[in-house]
Amino acid sequence: MSKIKDSLKKVSIHVGLILGVIILLTFIFLKVFLPSYTNHGETVSVPDLEGFSYHEVENLLKSSNLNYEVNIDSGFNAELKPLTVLKQIPKAGNKVKSGRKIYLTLNSQNAPLIKMPNLVNSQLRNVQEILANMGLVRGEIKYVPDIGDNVVLEQKYRGRNVPEGFEIPKGSQIDLVVGDGLGNQILAIPNLVGMDEVDAEFLIIGSGLRIGKINYITTDTIPQGTIIRHLPPAGAEVKTGEPIDLWISELNKDTNF
């Protein structure tokens, strides 16, 4: 019986020693070897690389013990120099392990070609939005006499008219020739005094002029809707598209006929 107890005791001691060794080795592996192998706890902050040139990035990442890889797809920003960093992954400020690879998107060396849109006969305010959406820059605006008020008459690239569909580099400057709304034809103002309001407006528009401000004057003697006065006056010479202000009779509400 005592021999059995001695044997069990020896087995227990051996098992305990084996378990102790296993626990010790596990502790050394988890707390010493594994952290040193994976750089556990050693993190660096990703620097802000956007706006830096490709050559500057290499030194910045090297000093931070980080690597990099350039994405095949590139972007384009006309305001930045070629090979400037447009985007980075991970973002600046993120904590990563030492030696982590940072993926970079660079500004293309050559601007991509886009097809010129048709801006002619469009309002200037709409044209500016179209240019911005397509990545083009609105250049010089030259106003010329034309009855089209702020209407684009010509679109130019590098001093020459550029037709719709012509390929130009993205970021190019487009100059515009725009109508001033007046025109260059000289007209004499017709005499509108005494005319009916409807007839006068018809004559004004038919003459290439515009209706300006309308003023109503209360009167007991002149039929309602009659032109009493207008500016510029009859005989004055103006350009096409000029506005004509009218003074029109209006009956006194207290007058009975």
UniProtKB/TrEMBL annotation:
Signal peptide: none annotated. InterPro entries: PASTA_dom (IPR005543). SUPFAM superfamilies: Penicillin-binding protein 2x (pbp-2x), c-terminal domain. Residues 41-108, 110-180, 183-250 form the PASTA domain. Pfam families: PASTA. Keywords: Membrane, Transmembrane, Transmembrane helix. The chain crosses the membrane at residues 12-34. Gene3D superfamilies: 3.30.10.20. This is PASTA domain-containing protein.
